[in-house]
C-alpha cells in the first residue's frame, strides 16, 4: 500500500479514519513493514497507569526494516552520505548494502564484547558514520541504546550511564568541531571512574590521538573489525521490547530516561517522515540535528532509513570554515529536503546575506524547522533566501517523548503559516485545556496542549521509574498526555506553539530544567543558593539567566566568581548549559513559606520591571529593589 498522502483531500480522509478507526488506520500502515510475526491486537491502552502497547505480540527487528528489506531493490542506492567537519577532507558514501555490512560488523563487535539482548549500551560519539553503525548495531542485536550527546560533561554522562546501568560504552578518541579538536575519550575515562556497570569501551579512531587505553576494558574499533564476520542475524524483538532510552530534561532536577519501543516507533517515524517531507525515492535528504537528540534518532537515522531514503550526516558546524557551509553542502550533494533548527537559521541570518546568495540552492524542494518556535523574521528569511519562495517550510512540533512529529504541515499539501506548526498529523488528537482543566473548544484561545489518544511513537515509560512517567505526563489532567507546552489554534484550526509552561527552558533547541541548572550551580562551594530563569535571546531563542547568592568566603571579584560558576556548570552538565548572565544577589525573592517567586525573576531577566505585580507577600520585599537595580 502506498501510504503517502498526496492531496488535502487525502489528508482529510486519512485524518478522519485515524480518529474514527485508529486501530484499522495504523494496522493498514504497519502492514507495509517486515514482521517476523504479525500482531494479535493493534492497541492496548490506558492513560491512568499509563499503559500503552502497540502491535501486541508482533515480532520484528527494526534494522531488518531499515536495511535488509531494501537490499533487493535498493542495495546499490545510497543510504548514508557523510560530510566531514573540514571541507578539505573527503566525504564518504555508503550504499544500503554497505551500510548493512557495517552495521552487522559493529553488531558482531558488540556481541564479541559481551553485549546481549536487553543490555544497555551507551554511545558517546561525534557525528561520524560509526555513530550510525553503533545505533543500528544495538538495534540489530536487541541491545538498548542510550545515546548521550557528545557535548555533555563527564558528570552528566556518568549519571546517565548509572541510571541505565550500561554495560558497554562506544566512543571515539576525539572530535572535530569547527576549528577545534575536543578530547572525547578523556571525558569517558573521567565518567567511568564512577560507573561500575561498564565492562567494555569500544573506541573509534577519529582524530588519531594517542589515548589512554585501559587494559582489559578498552578496545579499538578498527582492531576489533578485523576479527568479525560481515553477517549478523537480526534478533527477533517483541513490538514492545525496548529500542532505546534517551535522556531529556524535565522540570525536576534529574533528566529522565525516555523509553521508546520497537514496533510503534518504527511505524510512526517512517509514516511521519514520508508524509511531512513528502519524500520521493530519488530525494537527497539532510537533517542537521545531532544523533544525540531525538531529531537525530527519528529523522536522521530511523525515519529516512525505514523509508529507503538517502540521508546525509554532517560532522561540522554551520559557521565553519564560514557561515556559507550549510549552503555549500546543499549545492555539493544536491540536497532536496533540508531540516534544521531556528537557532541555526537565526545565527546564519546574523552573518549576512552574501553567504547564502553565493550558492544556487536549486535542488531544494522542502525546508523543515524543529526544536523551538520559529519567529516570523527567521521564517521569512528561510523561506525567501534559502527556499527562494519556492519551497514550503514545514514547522514541525514534537518532543523527545512523542518519538516523532505531531503537529506540522505536510509539504505542499496542507497550509503553512509563519510561526504556526499547522494541522495535527493523522493519528494525533490534540486538545487544549484551560487553567481549570476544562477543554477549550473555541479557536484563538491559549491553553495547555494535551493529547487525548495514544499514537504509536509515544513514550512508554521513564527508564527504571514508571511512576515518574505517570507523574510527569499523565497526572496533571486525568486521561490526557500533557505536553508541557502552551498553544493555540487560529481561526482555521492551525496550531501555534507558544512555548513551555513548566520550568523547562529551550536554549538553541536544547531542553534544560531550571532546577537542573540550579543544582549544577549549587555544586560550586561559594554558592549558597541560586535561581535560574529563561529570557528571550536573539539567536538562542532563550538564554539562561542565573541569580546567585554566595557565601562569605566567595571571591570578592565578581568576574572571577562568575567564571567559577560557569566552570561548575560546564563540569556538571556541559558547555551547552552555560548561563548567559549571572547576577550576584544578596538574597532571592521568597514567599513567607520559602518559595522562590520566579515570576519576579523572569520579569527582571526579560528587562520588564515596570510592573512586577504584587510583592506584598514576600518575606523580604526590599530584596526586589536590589535585584532590579543590579539587573544585567
Ligand atoms: O517546547 C516545545 C519545543 O521543544 C520541546 C521539545 O523538546 P525536545 O524534547 O528536546 O525535542 C525537540 C525536537 C523535537 C517542545 O515541548 N518545540 C519543539 N519543536 C517545536 C517546539 N516549539 C515550537 N515549535 C516547534 N516546531
From TrEMBL:
PROSITE patterns with a match to the protein in the record: AMP_BINDING
Family: Belongs to the ATP-dependent AMP-binding enzyme family.
Domain AMP-dependent synthetase/ligase residue range list: 68-454
Its EC number(s): 6.2.1.1
Residue ranges constituting the Acetyl-coenzyme A synthetase N-terminal domain according to the UniProt record: 11-66
Source organism of the structure: Nibribacter ruber
Entry keywords, A to Z: Acetylation, ATP-binding, Ligase, Nucleotide-binding
GO molecular function, one term: ATP binding
Pfam families: ACAS_N, AMP-binding, AMP-binding_C
Name the UniProt record assigns to this protein: Acetate--CoA ligase
GO BP terms in the entry: acetyl-CoA biosynthetic process from acetate
SUPFAM superfamilies, per the entry: Acetyl-CoA synthetase-like (SSF56801)
Any one annotated GO CC term: cytosol
InterPro entries given in the database record: Ac_CoA_lig, ACAS_N, AMP-bd_C, AMP-bd_C_sf, AMP-binding_CS, AMP-dep_synth/lig_dom, ANL_N_sf
Domain AMP-binding enzyme C-terminal: 516-595
Amino acid at each position: 500500500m502506498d501510504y503517502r498522502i498526496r492531496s488535502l483531500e487525502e489528508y482529510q480522509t486519512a485524518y478522519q479514519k485515524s480518529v474514527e478507526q485508529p486501530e484499522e488506520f495504523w494496522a493498514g500502515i504497519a502492514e507495509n513493514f517486515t514482521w517476523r510475526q504479525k500482531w494479535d491486537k493493534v492497541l492496548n491502552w490506558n492513560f491512568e497507569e499509563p499503559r500503552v502497547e502497540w502491535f501486541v505480540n508482533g515480532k520484528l527487528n527494526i534494522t531488518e526494516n531499515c536495511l535488509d528489506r531494501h537490499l533487493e531493490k535498493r542495495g546499490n542506492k545510497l543510504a548514508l552520505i557523510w560530510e566531514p567537519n573540514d571541507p578539505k577532507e573527503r566525504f564518504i558514501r555508503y550504499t544500503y548494502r554497505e551500510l548493512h555490512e557495517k552495521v552487522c560488523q559493529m553488531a558482531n563487535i558488540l556481541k564479541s564484547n559481551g553485549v546481549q539482548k536487553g543490555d544497555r549500551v551507551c554511545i558517546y560519539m561525534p557525528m561520524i558514520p560509526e555513530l550510525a553503525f553503533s545505533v543500528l548495531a544495538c538495534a540489530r542485536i536487541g541491545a538498548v541504546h542510550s545515546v548521550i550527546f557528545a557535548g555533555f560533561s563527564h558528570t552528566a554522562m556518568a549519571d546517565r550511564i548509572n541510571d541505565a546501568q550500561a554495560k558497554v560504552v562506544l566512543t571515539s578518541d576525539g572530535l572535530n568541531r569547527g576549528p577545534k579538536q575536543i578530547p572525547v575519550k578523556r571525558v569517558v575515562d573521567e565518567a567511568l571512574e564512577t560507573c561500575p556497570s561498564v565492562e567494555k569501551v569500544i573506541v573509534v579512531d577519529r582524530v588519531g590521538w594517542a589515548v589512554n587505553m585501559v587494559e582489559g576494558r578498552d578496545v579499538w574499533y578498527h582492531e576489533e573489525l578485523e576479527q568479525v564476520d560481515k553477517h549478523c542475524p537480526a534478533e527477533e524483538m517483541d513490538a514492545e521490547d525496548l529500542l532505546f532510552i534517551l535522556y531529556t530534561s524535565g522540570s525536576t532536577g534529574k533528566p529522565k530516561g525516555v523509553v521508546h519501543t520497537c514496533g510503534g516507533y518504527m511505524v510512526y517515524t517512517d509514516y511521519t517522515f514520508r508524509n511531512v517531507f513528502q519524500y520521493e525515492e530519488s530525494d537527497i535528504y539532510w537533517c542537521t540535528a545531532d544523533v544525540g537528540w531525538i531529531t537525530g534518532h527519528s529523522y536522521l537515522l530511523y525515519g529516512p532509513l525505514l523509508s529507503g531514503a538517502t540521508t546525509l550526516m554532517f560532522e561540522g558546524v554551520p559557521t565553519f570554515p564560514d557561515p556559507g557551509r550549510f549552503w555549500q553542502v546543499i549545492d555539493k550533494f544536491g540536497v532536496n529536503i533540508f531540516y534544521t533548527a531556528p537557532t541555526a537559521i537565526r545565527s546564519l541570518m546574523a552573518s549576512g546575506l552574501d553567504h547564502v546568495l553565493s550558492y544556487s540552492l536549486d535542488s531544494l524542494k522542502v525546508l523543515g524547522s524543529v526544536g523551538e518556535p520559529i519567529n516570523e523574521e527567521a521564517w521569512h528569511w528561510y523561506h525567501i533566501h534559502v527556499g527562494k519562495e519556492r519551497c514550503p517550510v514545514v514547522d514541525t512540533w514534537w518532543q523527545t517523548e512523542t518519538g516523532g512529529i505531531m503537529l506540522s504541515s505536510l509539504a505542499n499539501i496542507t497550509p503553512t503559516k509563519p510561526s504556526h506548526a499547522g494541522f495535527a498529523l493523522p493519528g494525533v488528537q490534540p486538545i487544549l485545556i484551560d487553567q481549570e482543566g476544562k477543554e477549550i473548544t473555541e479557536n484563538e484561545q491559549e491553553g495547555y496542549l494535551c493529547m487525548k489518544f495514544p499514537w504509536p511513537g509515544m513514550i512508554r515509560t521513564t527508564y527504571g521509574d514508571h511512576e515518574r512517567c505517570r507523574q510527569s505526563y499523565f497526572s496533571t489532567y486525568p486521561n490526557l498526555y500533557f505536553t508541557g507546552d502552551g498553544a493555540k489554534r487560529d481561526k482555521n484550526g492551525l496550531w501555534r506553539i507558544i512555548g513551555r509552561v513548566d520550568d523547562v527552558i529551550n536554549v538553541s533547541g536544547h531542553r534544560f530544567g531550571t532546577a537542573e541548572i540550579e543544582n549544577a550551580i549549587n555544586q560550586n562551594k561559594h554558592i549558597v543558593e541560586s535561581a535560574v530563569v529563561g529570557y528571550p535571546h536573539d539567536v538562542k531563542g532563550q538564554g539562561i539567566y542565573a541569580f546567585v547568592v554566595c557565601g562569605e568566603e566567595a571571591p570578592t571579584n565578581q568576574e572571577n566568581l562568575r567564571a567559577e560558576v560557569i566552570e561548575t556548570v560546564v563540569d556538571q552538565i556541559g558547555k551547552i548549559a552555560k548561563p548567559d548572565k549571572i547576577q550576584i544577589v544578596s538574597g532571592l525573592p521568597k514567599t513567607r513559606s520559602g518559595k522562590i517567586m520566579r515570576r519576579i525573576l523572569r520579569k527582571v531577566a526579560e528587562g520588564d520591571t515596570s510592573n512586577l505585580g504584587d510583592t506584598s507577600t514576600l518575606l523580604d520585599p526590599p530584596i526586589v529593589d536590589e535585584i532590579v537595580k543590579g539587573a544585567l
